[in-house]
Specification:
The complex is a heterodimer of chains A (125) and B (133). Chain A is 46% helix and 26% strand. Chain A has 125 residues and is an alpha/beta fold. Chain A has a single domain, classed as Transcription Regulator spoIIAA (2-Layer Sandwich), CATH 3.30.750. Chain B has one domain: Histidine kinase-like ATPase, C-terminal domain (Heat Shock Protein 90, 2-Layer Sandwich). Chain B is globular. Classes of the chains: A alpha/beta (125), B alpha+beta (133).
């Protein structure tokens, strides 16, 4: 089953991966490959926009956990937005993401990122 | 009958999904049935048999009035998927193993699960309600 991945650069040191379609044993490798490319750049925040992801097996969860581990190791964070109900259920069962990192909408996510940016600026200045 | 789950697994799972939809099951239930079947088939494909042996297996779907049952048969090494230790899902991210989640999903998404080794055959029987509660 097809998987599509788009990577978008928005705020500084932030990248959004839009993952759509189905994640399974055949396609999770594609996500890992894209992930390695993204992780090769200087990055503080990795966002997964899962609006178009209709299905994931444990293979997909493994990739998402890998991403979170890699980001945490470099002191960054991984956030999720627009997680659809079937995928959310699977995430919850496997505790594949901290609930604090899952946002219901891009607006909620933006508000959080704005607050973080402001805080970073204050700390720097 | 799946002659080799490594190569024919995905097509068999597609057929299973089509059958579930044709039987009038709701979309979310269909996807969960596919998911549990996919985890079991993938496990057999990866670990059930020696690499040079085709991963032969059978997936039987039967529709009851209230529930759907899925039965998996394979002649690979004896393996009780329900007897495996659960990975620690509450461990901090750094220490968390990334594997072993497939069987966690299988157990959580069905109402009944039973494993038996019948002679040379692993038999796994899963029962799931037709509608989500």
């Amino acid at each position: 089953m097809a998987l599509s991945i788009q990577v978008e650069e928005g705020r500084s040191f932030t990248k959004t991966m839009r993952v759509a379609g189905r994640l399974d044993d055949q396609t999770a490798g594609d996500l890992d490959t894209e992930l390695d490319k993204v992780l090769g750049s200087a990055l503080k925040t990795l966002v997964f926009d899962l609006a178009g992801l209709e299905y994931t097996t444990s293979a997909g969860l493994r990739s998402f956990l890998r991403a979170q581990k890699a980001m945490k190791q470099r002191g960054g964070e991984t956030l999720f937005v627009n997680v659809q109900p079937p995928v959310k259920k699977v995430f919850e069962i496997a505790k594949a993401a901290n609930l604090n990192t899952v946002f219901r909408s891009v607006r909620e996510l933006d508000a959080y990122l704005d607050a973080m940016q402001k805080k970073a600026k204050e700390e720097a200045g | 009958m799946i002659a080799d789950a490594r190569t024919e697994g995905p097509a068999a799972l597609d057929r299973l999904e089509v059958s579930c939809r044709a039987a009038g099951l709701e979309g979310p239930v269909v996807l969960e049935l596919r998911l549990v079947a996919e985890e079991v088939v993938t496990n057999v494909a990866k670990y059930g048999y020696a690499p040079e042996t085709p991963a032969a297996m059978e997936v039987l779907l039967s529709m009851g009035d209230d529930a759907v049952s899925l039965e998996f048969h394979d002649r690979g090494r004896p393996f009780d998927p329900l007897g495996q230790p659960r990975p620690d899902l509450d461990a901090p991210l750094e220490e968390r193993p990334v594997g072993g989640l497939g069987l966690v999903l299988v157990r959580a998404l069905v109402e009944e699960a039973r494993y038996s080794r019948e002679g040379p055959v692993n038999v796994l029987r899963l029962v799931k309600r037709r509608t989500q509660q």
